Amino acid sequence: MRWNEMYIAATGSCFPERDDCARAVAEGRYDAQEHERNGYRSISVAGDMSAADMAVSAAGQGLARSGHTGDDIALVLHANVHHQGQDHWTPASYLQERVTGGRAPAMEIRQGSNGGLAGLVLALSYLSAHTGQDAALVTAADKFCPPVYDRYRSDKWMVLGDGASAAVLSRRGGFARVLATAMDSDPGLEEMYRGSGFTDAPFSTGLPLDLRERKREYMDRLGLAEVALRCSVGLQNVVKEAFGDAGTDLDDIARFVFPNVGRSLVQWDYLDAFGIDEERTTWEWGSGIGHAGAGDQFGGLDHLVAAGALSAGDRVVLAGSGIGFSWACAVLEIVEPPTWHRQGDA
């Protein structure tokens, strides 16, 4: 999908504290071989903050930077994977009440780690269809803590990090023009994270969650080669479509923002697949954060802005996948780098 005059007006993020991975290995909380293979330096840990409150922090920062007020926000979308701080509850409404106010629709997105980019596409579509409305807020937040998760052992090839990120989308203008987006899905892969059978209540299979065993059973039956091929096809599909609609190619892209999965997975799924160097990605930043669910892409973009790493005319790709399985890609063009990092609020 090619977009006309749609922008990212601002981003925001909240990644509160860090747990040093070498210390986690020394204390027996993290396998030494996995530490070497994954390449993480540290992992973002929320401490006492709820996922919803991290989202409030990131969204408030983004709105303050955007040039918009809460009255301009026509849609609030909040993406997440896990518990947001309370059961039987609507965190998107909590976020709206504390950041934007107003009576705009406020909804939750459950698209796994693809939720942030899915929210981007949905918000752009909403603004495009409602021509009298100017802006939308998209957030992503998660907190992967005990007793439900052992962040170092529940899953393989990645360590789960806590945090939140946000983007304010605008029809008026912004620091980045959205040139094109694309999405794809392969529901035949959803069983990989479901496992066999269903339960009547959350976490009835025991805690902490053992996502590795679910994946192992699935891989043993379907085969690693088949899964890898289908995942590669999904990613290639969205990149090809978005690049075609944006009129761009790999050589035109200054920076890539991929999920903060482990170093080996980044190499296999992204660097090798597209023939690009790590230096063009946000892996150096991501290796100090961990995989923050649906928030890696907005968080990585926010990091690039804060680091002063973007120039006018640069093209930036946000891409990733989510369990289910789904993939998304967005191609941006920097209009003019904002001055947030020089103002000291990044």
From TrEMBL:
Ranges for domain Beta-ketoacyl-[acyl-carrier-protein] synthase III C-terminal: 245-334
InterPro entries per the UniProt record, alphabetical: ACP_syn_III_C (IPR013747), ACP_syn_III_N (IPR013751), Thiolase-like (IPR016039)
Pfam family for this entry, one: ACP_syn_III
SUPFAM superfamilies reported in the protein's UniProt record: Thiolase-like (SSF53901)
UniProt keywords, alphabetically: Acyltransferase, Cytoplasm, Transferase
Domain Beta-ketoacyl-[acyl-carrier-protein] synthase III N-terminal: 108-187
Gene3D superfamilies for this protein: 3.40.47.10
Full protein name: 3-oxoacyl-ACP synthase
UniProt organism field: Streptomyces lunalinharesii
High-level lineage: Bacteria, Bacillati, Actinomycetota, Actinomycetes, Kitasatosporales
